[in-house]
What does this fold into?
Amino acid sequence: MTETVETLFDQGIERYQAGESPETLLPLFKEVCERSPKSSPAWTCLAWLYLLDNKPSQALKAAQKAVKLNPQDPQARVNLAVAMLETAKTGVREHVEIAEQLIMAVPELREEVKKNCEDGLSRKPNWKGLIRVQNWLFGS
It folds into this structure.
């Protein structure tokens, strides 16, 4: 029996939250993105996992898709900004400013992005790109 895309996605999130490594979760989220190519949350997660796994070029592509599918998702913007920093692309400020506007408007989004930044730094300490974006969004 084939599992639904939603089930796979939820299992991936649970496994991530349980501490499973990005490296082992990447194939699952790649499959979710292949089976549901218009799912912004799936592309956002895939970009995050690529960033955690030190694959900024792949992260950049996934984050660009996530932002294209849902320009109002601040986490997708954060992922894109971090990937751009790590691949030495220009235009980072625009995405950080949009993310900042979105998290200022919706307190729940602010808390979610803040929590995700903290999670990222707990999994990958001294993550320069994320630290820079976090400082821009929340102050140092």
Notes: The chain has a mean pLDDT of 96.
